[in-house]
Design a protein that fits this description.
The structure is a single chain. The protein contains 45 helices and 35 strands. It is extended, with a radius of gyration of 46 Å.
Length: 1355
């Protein structure tokens, strides 16, 4: 982000914009507080219970009883009746079998079938009649679908699907369009695009998807799809019929063995979730998953009507089964309306049944179909006695965006159309709906909504209540088809109802409307009319000021002031009531006095300080402004893409037309505020703080319990109340003026962005600096308005730079900017613009002298306006002009002018004290001034390591070689610039520069810098506190980097003692900033430095060296323990121990007691004993026994176990093999031979392993001889193993025979003598053993043979 100087914008203006922005954000948040439909219905997280509504008075409140003045409030506009075309009426006389009628709202057409003929006409005027008579059978169903892309020619925009009992025909539909009507004239292609047999299956409904798939509902109960493609394939024809309900097995079962099929009568597709639902005539609902991409089809769930009825009766308490069956229609509930509920089914009695398709209502692919809510229609509430009821007469229904239409039969000649929706009751914690009954002449054949409900204010996600987006929504138009023709009507928005109320001019109606919607909402609607409807502007403005209320100051006795609405509470719509509790309804500002009463009120409640309650005029203005800017407020204005040349191009997310409409609404609001200056005029100068404080103190004293016990003088009360009313108006006036400033800035920023879009914003973005691009990458309209004045200046400057040299265009842009954005482009910007023009012209001038003069002149101009200047952008211009000295001088000059008393340097040297606010502010300003110099150095430094393309021997393009590219010595350029910067006398800049050098890995270069400030900089770092564990992560990283530099610096200047001291303290410091391996590395370096101290003659550090070496040895054991801990199973205690081991260096006692002994790390215990020189034979033998046991007890094969034992002995033998006390060979051989005897290992395995460790044959023979002479009964306690030791020694002797060189020649004769003695003794022992012992005879023979061979060796 670009750092702008504090003087670049007025602090009070910035504060005003931020305050107003907070108001807008508050209103935007309140507009998103509407509960999701599932929560309004009180759904359970699991599906164990089905909730019920429609049985309480709160569900369907009677407006005429609560607010009688609004009893005539209209809900729909006037009906427009278009009769059937006269030429169609006479065709009914020729009907023989069937007729049907429907509507295609997406193309403004109604349709009629009479037997095999199809007629389509424009239902708005009855014209453009088209017909198709190319079929011979009765048409059963008609459908209009979108084609798959890339299959047909571009003029075919829809497909008309006709189904008979014999054929399925697909016709192409195209249109002749005009600028006003894209569907002015319809054309049916004369020849069908596809035709295929229906196999005597009646397709009762046709439904298409947005990606061009066509589904058919068969009277055999199956779901079919028409698959089509451009050409025939290897396995599929261009057009085919696919059955998604039957498997291959169904074709093998005779039809007389199956039950009568339940015909499908309706389908509906949820394109937001890619789910298709089917409804049969019997009332069964099935769910088909179309896949995440909408290209597959899999049946996942189904539910019968009996189950639905049973569950509905169980949870609703209504035993009348006719309430819940039959089902007449289904409607999907897309993700934009609800997340937890997915499908709505309507019964003939008008009962709404809500379903979900996912378990626990999580967002996933459908797997179930579960009834989660039952909502009874009007007529089932306790107070409903005389009101009309729907009855079991509903035959048509339509539900979209929370609005439900039910067409109920009154008699053969008339229907009643019920409209039920919740638009009048947003922001509730339960579903509250209004209803209206409309008589319809004739039976309703079809009911649909015209596809024109797109609005700019919808930002994705859940649709907000209509009251939020009504200023941008088009009117919702509905079409109803009867035998008398078509009826079209619009559903009135709340603002349309306000228009009707204002036209009537009755004060009681206007007052009741404000009571119904509350002041803020009603005032916002008044502003919609006042800024968009010239005819209603005067009446709306008058109502806004008359009924908008006044601010007041209250003394709440409990906190919070607004209690949450009870979910089960019934809202009253009477006078003074609050029908819904949106946060925007009660907007308060912080207490006037922050003093809180210490005593208790008369009712025992703490009395808080006075609190300002703003008026409906204020809140309505903020609410309307929030809704105007809502589409762009948090929207990133730019999106970036890569070009073919891999260049990043930025483009506006908002089009010029959208900006035009957006700016028009904002400008209309500004014009309204300008036309009514009394609303947002700048408040008068406030009274002194002392006077206000005295008044507040008097008021609080008056509210104290001891004062309230006696009557205060009436005059005092009246004076204080009048004063507080005046103060409330003044505070609201201040807030309104801040909102006005925000409106002005919004208008200017929108106009500027529109100007940029007209001038190709991508070209403007491409000319911006990298820092500005980085900020623009994620900048929102809110950021641009509130904090982006500097960015706007950069955009304006860049826009003007694009047309340097074109005087006419520059003048035009300048005039337009001053007209539409005077706050963003003032007269003070002219000097900067002139200087930038000089810089730009200098780049085009090849005369170096003239070029230098232009750059120096620009520097003189800019040096006078550094407080207004954007240093980053200006220095980038100097960079591209290769005017590096200009960057350095301008930045140093700007820093000097910003802090002429060097308070920032004092602030830095004092350790940045928190109470020095002025010093901190100046310090930040000077840092922002130094930033361009550091950016320049960073760029030049990186260029030293960048390989230029021109250095490659491969030419850039074919042809003869071009002129040689100029060679730039980037390293020399960097060195020269760095030297120039180091010559500066700005001490604070030197400290900043040293930090930059550290961050850019220039530590060695920094060490060689000759500067009077370097020693002080390093000295300050080394004296800083080394308690690193108390530092924040970011500060810790910086501190460690500097400390790492310090010891290297001391090492380089041969101050080895200081270097060793820092390294040692770093290694011993507690905290998680280093792991144990890094601490050992620091210790190792510290040892090396300490040794260097000894070499240089400083013998006083010998004890420190010895101490470091001891710590190094203990640290290695600690690392061994850490590695062993890592092999243990994960456990909280193990994890904590690992953390502690990494956190600091520990003494050897702690390592033994808290870790090695605690977690039974036997090898680590042995290492600790060896390190400490502590000998306990019993403990050592116990440790070895546990080590061997842990290896043997592992679950593995015999070979793997033997290999692991061998590896363990070899590893530990290398460590302790030279020390008999910690490597007791005799004990280990006995222990292992017992295990070898028990586990039947190879007889020579143990002694051969010890040979590898380094134990000599003489020692092994002696050990085994002692084991034999001990006559330990353990050898005879195992079956078949009394001869084990004999076999082991036999192998030992055989090994000697195989490699006699294993015994030195000087000792060989003596060793042979020992063998002769031992073998003779073993033969005697064998002869005394039980002759029946298995293998005894063979063993004795083997030993006699050994004796013979040994005898020969002695000769």
């Amino acid at each position: 982000m670009i750092k702008m100087a504090a003087s670049h914008r007025n602090s009070r203006e910035s504060e005003a914009l931020e305050n107003a922005c907070t108001q807008v954000d508050t209103q935007l948040h309140s507009d998103t507080s509407q509960l999701e439909l599932g929560r309004l219905l009180g759904l359970q997280q699991n599906h164990t219970h089905t909730t019920v509504s429609g049985v309480r008075d709160v569900d369907y409140p009677t407006l005429s009883m609560q607010l009688p003045a609004l009893s005539g409030l209209p809900y729909v506009g006037s009906f427009k009746h278009t009769p059937l075309p006269p030429e169609l009426v006479e065709h009914f006389d020729q009907m023989q079998c069937n007729c049907a009628m429907g509507v295609f709202p997406e193309i403004n057409r109604a349709w009629l079938t009479i037997d095999s003929n199809l007629y389509i006409w424009n239902y708005e005027d009855g014209g453009d009649l088209a017909f198709f008579d190319g079929l011979n059978e009765v048409i059963l169903s008609v459908g209009l679908v979108r084609p798959k892309p890339g299959i047909f020619q571009d003029h075919v925009v829809h497909l008309l699907v006709l189904c008979t009992t014999v054929d399925i025909v697909i016709l192409g539909v195209s249109f002749t369009s005009s600028s006003e009507d894209p569907f002015m004239e319809m054309h049916l292609l004369p020849e069908p695009l596809f035709s295929l047999p229906s196999d005597n299956i009646g397709m009762l409904e046709i439904r298409g998807t947005e990606n061009g798939r066509i589904f058919l509902a068969g009277d055999d109960g199956c779901l079919y799809e028409i698959g089509y493609q451009a050409e025939d394939g290897w396995f599929h024809r261009k057009c085919r019929k696919i059955n998604h309900s039957s498997s291959l097995m169904s074709y093998l079962i005779p039809s007389f063995l199956t039950s009568k099929p339940d015909s499908l009568c309706q389908m509906t597709v949820d394109m937001s979730r890619n789910i298709l639902y089917t409804l049969s005539k019997g009332g069964s609902i099935e769910v088909y998953d179309l896949g995440g991409d909408g290209l597959s089809t899999n049946r996942v769930a189904g539910i019968s009507v009996d189950y639905i009825v049973q569950r509905a009766i169980q949870y609703s308490g209504k035993n009348d089964r006719n309430l819940f069956r039959p089902l007449i229609s289904m409607s999907v509930i897309p993700q934009s309306e609800a997340m937890q509920v997915h499908l709505l089914a309507v019964t003939k009695a008008g009962v709404r049944l809500y379903f979900t398709t996912t378990p626990n209502m999580v967002k996933s692919r459908p797997t179930i179909l579960s009834l989660v809510h039952v909502r009874l229609p009007p007529g089932h509430t306790p107070s409903w006695s005389t009101g009309p009821k729907i009855g079991v007469t509903v035959h048509q229904s339509l539900c979209r965006q929370g609005t439900l239409f039910l067409s109920a039969k009154e008699d053969d000649q008339m229907d009643y159309l019920w409209m039920i929706d919740s638009d009048m009751f947003p922001f509730q914690n339960c579903l509250i709906e209004s209803r209206v009954i409309i008589p319809v002449n004739g039976r309703t054949w079809a009911l649909s909504e015209r596809e024109n409900t797109w609005n700019r204010a919808h930002l994705g996600g859940l649709l907000p209540p209509k009251v939020v987006t009504q200023h941008a929504d088009l009117q919702r138009e509905f079409v109803m088809v009867t035998a008398q023709g078509t009826y079209s009507f619009v559903k009135l928005k709340p603002v349309d109802q306000l228009r009707h109320v204002l036209e009537n001019g009755k004060e009681e109606e206007i007052s009741a409307f404000f009571q119904l919607h509350k002041d803020a909402q009603a005032c916002a609607m008044c502003l919609i009319l006042a800024t968009s409807d010239d005819q209603m502007a005067h009446l709306a403005t008058e109502a806004y000021f008359r009924f908008g209320g006044e601010p007041c100051i209250t003394f709440p006795q409990s906190s919070p002031a607004v209690q949450p609405t009870n979910t089960m509470a019934s809202p009253s719509l009477g006078l003074g009531s609050q029908p819904y509790s949106s946060p925007s309804q009660i907007s308060t500002m912080p207490p006037v006095s922050t003093t809180t009463m210490g005593g208790q009120g008369t009712l025992g409640k703490a009395i808080l300080g006075p609190e300002l309650v703003l008026s409906g005029k204020h809140n309505g203005l903020c609410l309307y402004l929030a809704r105007l800017v809502r589409p762009l407020w948090k929207l990133p204005l730019l999106e970036f893409r890569r070009s073919h040349a891999n260049e990043e191009l930025g483009s506006s997310r908002v089009t010029v037309d959208e900006l035009l409409a957006f700016s028009k609404e904002l400008c209309n609001l500004k014009q309204f505020l300008d036309a009514n200056p009394q609303l947002c005029k700048q408040p008068e100068k406030e009274a002194s703080q002392q006077k206000d404080h005295n008044l507040h103190r008097q008021m609080l004293d008056f509210m104290r319990p001891d004062t309230m016990a006696t009557s205060a003088p009436l005059q005092l009360q009246q004076n204080m109340q009048a004063k507080y009313r005046t103060e409330a108006r003044a505070m609201e006036q201040k807030s309104l003026h801040e909102v006005y400033q925000l409106v002005v800035m919004c208008c200017e920023c929108a106009s500027l962005w529109r100007l940029l879009c007209e001038a190709q914003v991508s070209q403007v973005i491409g000319r911006l600096s990298a820092n500005v691009k980085l900020q623009l990458r994620s900048i929102t309209f809110c950021d641009l308005v509130v904090q982006g004045k500097g960015v706007c200046s950069e955009l304006i400057r860049t826009l003007l730079d694009m047309y340097i040299g074109d005087v006419h265009m520059t003048d035009t842009l300048t005039a337009r900017l001053r007209e539409t954005a005077p706050c963003l482009f003032s007269e003070d910007d002219a000097t900067i613009s002139k200087a930038h023009e000089l810089i730009s012209l200098s780049k085009r001038n090849e005369d170096l002298h003239v070029r230098g003069t232009m750059l120096k002149d620009s520097l003189k101009l800019l040096s006078r306006v550094t407080g207004k200047l954007n240093l980053t952008t200006t220095c980038q211009e100097y960079y591209f002009a290769h005017y590096y000295s200009g960057i350095i001088n301008l930045c140093i000059c700007a820093a000097s002018q910003a802090d002429k008393k060097d308070l920032a340097l004092h602030y830095y040297k004092k350790g940045s004290p928190q109470d020095d606010i002025e010093g901190a502010t100046l310090y930040d300003q000077r840092l922002s001034c130094y930033e361009p110099i550091l950016s320049l150095l960073t760029t030049l430094h990186k260029a030293c390591f960048r390989i230029s393309v021109s250095q490659s021997p491969v030419p850039l393009e074919p042809g003869p070689p071009g002129p040689p590219a100029p060679q730039i010595d980037h390293e020399a350029e960097f060195e020269e610039t760095l030297s120039s910067v180091l010559r500066s006398q700005d001490e604070l800049f030197h400290y900043v520069l040293y930090t930059w050098m550290i961050q850019n890995d220039l530590k060695f270069k920094l060490i060689h810098v000759k500067s009077p400030f370097l020693e002080q900089f390093l000295h300050q770092c080394i004296e800083s506190d080394l308690k690193l564990s108390a530092l924040a992560p970011e500060e810790l990283s910086k501190k460690l980097t500097i400390l790492d530099l310090l010891w290297r610096y001391y090492e380089r200047v041969k101050n080895y003692g200081s270097a060793a001291n820092i390294l040692g303290r770093l290694a011993e410091g507690e905290g998680s900033h280093f792991n144990l391996g890094e601490r050992i590395e620091y210790l190792s370096r510290a040892v090396m430095c300490a040794k260097s101290v000894s070499v240089t003659g400083h013998s006083s550090d010998g004890s420190y060296l010895h101490d470091l070496q001891d710590k190094m040895e203990v640290a290695r054991i600690q690392l061994m323990i850490l590695n062993e801990m890592g092999n243990l199973p994960s456990d909280p205690s193990v994890d904590e121990a690992i953390r502690i081991l990494n956190g600091s260096l520990m003494d050897i006692s702690t390592l033994y007691g808290q870790f090695a002994d605690e977690f039974d790390l036997h090898e680590c215990k042995l290492a600790i004993l060896h390190c400490a020189g502590h000998y306990d034979s019993g403990l050592v033998e116990t440790l070895w026994r546990n080590i061997i046991k842990s290896v043997i007890d592992e679950d593995c094969t015999v070979e793997e176990r033997m290999r692991k034992v061998e590896n363990k002995l070899l590893t530990l033998g290398q460590l302790y093999g030279q020390t008999e006390r910690y490597f007791p060979v005799g004990y280990l051989i006995k222990l292992l031979e017992i295990q070898s005897c028990r586990l039947e290992w190879n007889e020579g395995f143990i002694q051969q392993t010890f040979r590898k460790v380094g134990v000599s044959l003489e020692t092994l023979l002696d050990i085994y001889n002692k084991l034999m002479q001990a006559n330990d009964p353990i050898w005879s306690s195992h079956d078949n193993n009394p001869l084990h030791l004999f076999w082991v020694v036999r192998v030992l002797v055989d090994d000697f025979f195989a490699k006699p060189d294993s015994v030195p020649i000087r000792e060989r004769n003596r060793f042979i003598g020992q063998l002769m003695s031992a073998v003779s003794d073993f033969i005697i022992r064998l002869q005394t053993m039980d002759p029946s012992l298995p293998h005894l005879r063979k063993t004795l023979n083997d030993y006699e043979h050994l004796q013979s061979r040994l005898s020969k060796m002695t000769h």
